[in-house]
Structures are given as C-alpha cells and as structure tokens.
Design goal:
binds iron/sulfur cluster; alpha/beta; two-stranded antiparallel ribbon; 4 helices
Length: 187
C-alpha cells in the first residue's frame, strides 16, 4: 500500500517541470499561494502516529511517498529535515520514497549517521527533459543510496536514459503516475 507523508508544504519553482506544478494549481483553487512554505502541524510526525491500541497507523511494509506537495531537499526546509530524517530512521520497517529536483543539495543534507545509506529509503530524481536528465542522473549515480530510481514526469520533452543504465544502479524508471498508486506527483 502507498500513502503520503507531507512534513512540510509549499515550494519554490526551480526547473522546467515546475511550470505547471500541480501543488501550485491545487493551492490556487483554495486562494492559497504555493510559494508559502510551512511545516505541517499534524502531519509532521505522521509515520510515528499510533491508533488507540498503540499500533502504528502506517503499517510495517508500507511505502510512504514523502513531500508530494514540496521537495524534501528544499532549502527553505533545511531547519526541519534533520527531524524528518530521525523519523525515517525510527521506522526501518517502512519504505520512504523520496523524489527531488534538487539532487545537488543532497550530499550536504544527509544525516550524520547515513553511512552507505539506509535500506528503507528509495531515492529518485525527476527527469522531465533531456537537459535535466543529463544534469541530475550523474549526481544520482554519485550519491550513497541503497535504492535509486528516476521519475519521468511531467514529460515535457524526449528523454533518453540508456547511457546511464549500464552502471546497474537505477532500480526503477517511473513515468506519470505509473506504479505510483495513481497519484499525481508534484515533482
Ligand atoms: S513541488 Fe515539485 S513541481 Fe512543484 S515547485 Fe516544487 S519541485 Fe517544482
């Protein structure tokens, strides 16, 4: 089962794929501004929340898609990320799906005890066109993650990734909504 964890909301547009950001669109329908970035009140500790019986609401083995209305590596979220990492560390039985348009910020914002990467984190970069593919995948290949993938959404131009598959690091390639619980990713 797939669920969503949004520890913060709002984002800054940073590349071509942001032009028609779905989060900005949804916020505009509520007369909100998507560039208003804030830490969510009730949602921040969602992976640790429990029901009345004391059981985790997010069950063991589930996958949580993280920051679907923002970007986990957004600069404006730097003060909140360490706490989010600690929550991810406390749920090794849950898979956390991270997707970013900012892989250049990742190396400097991993937790101190990251080592070679945590088994429960699935790291993905967005490849909406060839320019961003050639920019982000080389960074992806250098980063210490146990599980790596790419998301081709929104497709706004032809994309070839064949040059990068030979390294055997990319576990999955997702396109708009595919294998994604039908949810529309923001980034
Ligand atoms: S949420 Fe995603 S698509 Fe929207 S502005 Fe941020 S990075 Fe861009």
């Amino acid at each position: 089962m797939h669920d969503i964890w949004n520890p913060w909301h709002g984002c800054i547009k940073c590349s071509e794929g942001c032009q028609n950001c779905y989060m900005y669109y949804l916020d505009s329908l509520r007369d909100k501004d998507g560039s208003n970035i804030y830490r969510t009140k009730t949602g921040f500790k969602y992976p640790l929340s429990k029901d009345r019986q004391g059981n985790y609401k997010v069950k063991s083995g589930e996958m949580l898609r993280v920051c679907m209305t923002s970007d986990f590596f957004l600069e404006e979220a730097d003060d909140w990320r360490d706490e989010a990492w600690s929550i991810i560390e406390r749920r090794p039985d849950v898979k956390f799906f991270l997707l970013t348009k900012r892989p250049d910020r990742v190396a400097e914002h991993l937790p101190f005890n990251w080592g070679g990467g945590w088994e429960n984190v699935f790291f993905n970069v967005t490849c909406e066109n060839q320019k961003r593919t050639d920019e982000r995948i080389p960074i992806l290949l250098e980063l210490p993650f146990k599980h790596k993938g790419i998301m081709c959404a929104p497709f706004i131009g032809p994309v070839s990734i064949s040059n990068y598959l030979k390294y055997g690091q990319i576990e999955q390639v997702l396109c708009d909504g595919e294998n994604y619980g039908g949810a529309r990713p923001c980034h």
